[in-house]
């Protein structure tokens, strides 16, 4: 069995975490580039307040803050008194590990931080005073700099004398320095033992927001909350909910909801006006509220001010992740530099030949795991040092070669076999094991029919008839027998695309059809394409046009077939990006993140289970709204269906998305790709379906881990129905996060351990396995765009009647159908960026939370989960070596490793697709 070389550890490197301390002060009014870790000084100022300036009840405080003695007696904590000292019964010693934001880490800043008392800690007992029934707490004490640790963090210590105190139930940290600090962890030494706090959170310096509450690692359901910190638990949640007013500032930690009304920019240009997504007209999940002012040209839209889009501070990228993201973005963009320069004046220019497309890539230059630097300066410094060394050795040709590589794209995996994209077998195989294995579905009845209104769009019955199918499968069985034996499958992009065809065709440099593609399941377990139907709906000026294309025997028919495949693949790429990827993972998960932070305390066990699966999702989504899915962004400029992309995703959300069907088994059943046997077990319709084969192993492992976790904290169903935070979380997901579907009958009810396990497993699967399966294959499969063009630009010659140009030069017609050179310079860098794993990525089954490791039973359960994931990795390796599994193994076949768990050793990996399954949607 494989062994995880990354240790299961109870103490993690700095991560982002939850919570804000409430304040009476009100909030101030008011993708694809890494965010700054600190707020620009042009926007905000932090007031530096030393501890000697802090005043409590009129007295200056240094070290122990002096309070009213009678008040302290009533609280049960007599610390000091004028002229009289009572000996403490208990001494609390706290060690705080922290670091500055890298942008603020100047010598002057560090020196000032080390030599000033600025960090105040206040300790709360987990118990109430038995005499007064009130909270027991110390006064705020100043921590002093102690040392630097091995990781470069600062260690501060404070010793607090107190009377009989009980266990420490919470620590309040107050920052009086002139910049924000990242609190990694706090350890409190107590006579009853050490109490650990995994803070992993930024504490701002802004007045009114510079206090934070942190709770120990032990998890509690609301009803089990230690009495001494019950009030703090609710206060912490209230601080993160905000009041729904004002513009959010970058240092805040307020989680709230808004519709997608910030994708357009009508104040800049009327052509950039976009409809609001979210509401009855265009149903959509909700995003994080930023509170930016409304546009003057369109009050329903939010302004797109220059700079960063607000997300709660702890949701932002770490400095390391931001650096790796920027480095990958810049290096990917450099690859497109030469082409961009050549076509700057002509966005419609096609590639002159297939050889010209091949010339974009550098043979042998691949994005292998572990080769990507974390820092842009380091990347260029290392490159320069290498060039200087080569020049000194006289290796001028090698210098030229290395520099040339900078301006070349890495070779996608699919292009290792340069003719793979042309083969029908590969076209069919990728529906099961490629970039988008979530669209293929079983044909359950013939004739195939549309559900759209025929009066509006024309006849909806398919021209892929029984007779045509029987002819294409050489009469081995009747079409009805093929349906009965579950032999026919389909990519159906008909009903969802047809309403947009005429509108998209009015856009410059693009076209659109509705399409149906039918496949036949061969005896050896592979699919064979049978026919493609392309349709243009009727309009007031012209009748409906539609035609069926089949793999032809003549040269002309073969080229028409390739053109029809290009149209379908453009549909598949657009649907993949907008629905399988963006909508079903990024977009639909953001409401879960918001609701969890608003309703689940940081000490709630379910929050601690879900939190690692939510890291950085809001940040990457904000960057997507900034430059990827926005008006005239990369998606609209280079993917089908252009300007109407987000409207299409809204339509699919409205008619297709159901939470209970997002679980992998339910999704397979919905598409007819699996069925339940008489014994209740799931069986795949296509035995060699790599996405489903591997995905079900991951799904089962997740569900077993979640089951152990839930059963540990919930002894009975009544504990679930009586958990007010959990119920409020789930209510808010349904009624606010997915408000347009709040009344749907399919929402699960959290009334048992089984229903809770199913809900949590679904969320975790979507954020991890589902996202990994559709994200990391993007560049390996669509990076060579003849294999998966992002858009189609030219109508079929049989529709336009321009057969002469087609017959004279069919290759040119195909090249004119593919994305233009300009569109490729936009799409390829983004696909390369999205397909990358960042430094410090956390992987499913490998990454462990400190709270899990602090509980002996949960630690053992996670170790079983880890072991099972390692077994799955071995199973996937064996499957990829089995010649009987032809969808995974064969000449030119790219192995299916998208769902292979990470076992911590990248040296033998050759593809980013096999680096593992990240715990969250972080790219």
UniProtKB/TrEMBL annotation:
It comes from the Eukaryota. SMART domains: LH2 (SM00308). It is found in: Plastid, Chloroplast. Pathway: Lipid metabolism; oxylipin biosynthesis. It catalyses: (9Z,12Z)-octadecadienoate + O2 = (13S)-hydroperoxy-(9Z,11E)-octadecadienoate; (9Z,12Z,15Z)-octadecatrienoate + O2 = (13S)-hydroperoxy-(9Z,11E,15Z)-octadecatrienoate. It is an enzyme of class 1 (oxidoreductase). Its EC number is 1.13.11.-. Its cofactor is Fe cation. Signal peptide: none annotated. This is Lipoxygenase.
